[in-house]
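pasting input
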Amino acid sequence: MTHHKPADIERTSMAIIAAELCQRGITIPPDREAVVRRVIHTTADFDYAANLTFTPQAVARGVEALRRGTAIVTDTNMAKAGISRPALSKLGSQVLCFMAEEDVARQAKQQGTTRAAAAIDRAAREHPGAILAVGNAPTALFSIARHLEAGLRPALVIGVPVGFVNVVEAKEELLEVCRRLEIPAILAMGRKGGSNVAAAICNALLYLAGDLTDPAARGWQ
Amino acid sequence: MTHHKPADIERTSMAIIAAELCQRGITIPPDREAVVRRVIHTTADFDYAANLTFTPQAVARGVEALRRGTAIVTDTNMAKAGISRPALSKLGSQVLCFMAEEDVARQAKQQGTTRAAAAIDRAAREHPGAILAVGNAPTALFSIARHLEAGLRPALVIGVPVGFVNVVEAKEELLEVCRRLEIPAILAMGRKGGSNVAAAICNALLYLAGDLTDPAARGWQ
């Protein structure tokens, strides 16, 4: 085996991804390249080149928000664990997940909804201008759509749950609402997505925001 | 939107996955069904029906080990965050990740290796009979292969890193070693995998081990 430094491996991986996108005749608009390539890097799944859908200026608005230290609220501790600590700390940002909080569980029970939906209610109350990153729960997307209609204006909505029931519909509804209300959004249409995809999108934006596009700058060995 | 309980959603999702596997003419051996279906449930990616490779008795050996309370050692905090706490606690098992430990970083630096490889050295020393679950670092797989040749006998090796550099080779080398030495192993061949896939495989085994195959039994609402 040849020994490679992690930063070299990442650069080589990104070059392979760029070359294969080209071979497949896929052109990604330059402002979206960093996000699409990082999601493919995380999944080795080129379907995301077609699935990932951006409203106009979504990447720029997300990057601006992170440069202001805007918090990310996510729906799984797994996505939270996957988001880069060094990048968050460089920008003075943070990532929050309310899924395991007692008041969220209580509210979900009282209102006959899911914890994911109740966690969005709490995010809307306490962090109305946050970046909302959903990698797991389609009910969180329906909840976001309802809050947007009621006037909530998050900095960016990242909606990439994975699944077979209600997931496709939730993404389509949310995309329609985001387009109509001009809310910046990045969605993975179709069934695919996940906490790893949510974290990858957040990391791509954080690296852009913190000028950490070179992996060596992120403290890789 | 129709409200569904999470347990119902999971059952419906698993039924859709089973039906689509059938439509695609894919038959999964019964002992491997729970693992393959859960990975597809986590990724919405049917490629895993072909990519996931099992040595004989790998599932049975993993389940037996978890029933004895054997620890899982993983290479990312993201995989750790994705493994079911209720299931671990029912079985008296635990999940460990050494990637962020100072001594691991120090050893990696001293030996000119990666933290992932140094973390496997520590796992081999402190938890020689553990389940090793690698979702990220191909260098961890090379390290495991070396330890197996030197006599290490983990209860099960789960090797599902994702990536474009050294990943395919690392999995092929490890599969050859596991087959030759009769070490139980579950690998995702090719480029695909990830921390989410590692966590999904661990969860499938934990649910089998804890008779938690019905999602309602896992404390879903």
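fyi Chain A has a mean pLDDT of 95.
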